[in-house]
Amino acid sequence: xxxxxxxxxxxxxxxxxxxxxxxxxxxxxxxxxxxxxxxxxxxxxxxxxxxxxxxxxxxxxxxxxxxxxxxxxxxxxxxxxxxxxxxxxxxxxxxxxxxxxxxxxxxxxxxxxxxxxxxxxxxxxxxxxxxxxxxxxxxxxxxxxxxxxxxxxxxxxxxxxxxx
Length: 164
Ligand SMILES: [Zn+2]
Known about the structure:
By secondary structure, the protein is mostly helical. Helices cover 56% and strands 5% of the residues. The chain has a two-stranded antiparallel sheet.
């Protein structure tokens, strides 16, 4: 009877707020893990680690780093490539604008919170764009973020979230 409105001192608004509450963080993360697992299984990989070690990913990754050698956020030499999506077409390299080259520090910054928790993919992407947009308009990072968000309908939810 804890959530009952009858005899509750919390009132209707509070109850509504409770039911509207977003999915707990660990469940959101689990969703991404499942989506990624499904994509990879469909592609014939038994794990994400296996995919990361594959010739296929190495080729996509080096092509990206060759074409865009500088970290999209800070401009130092990029050494890693972040997936902004785990759908199959991105994993096979069919949507290059859903990949972004980063240096190790920036990659860690967007994926791990200051408390050492791993962000969900969506949260990591939001933070990535927020960092880029926090810079001046004429910087490479700002221009990359604008271009990337506009190029692909897949980013519509992020665009809405950031009001851009
Ligand atoms: Zn960087």
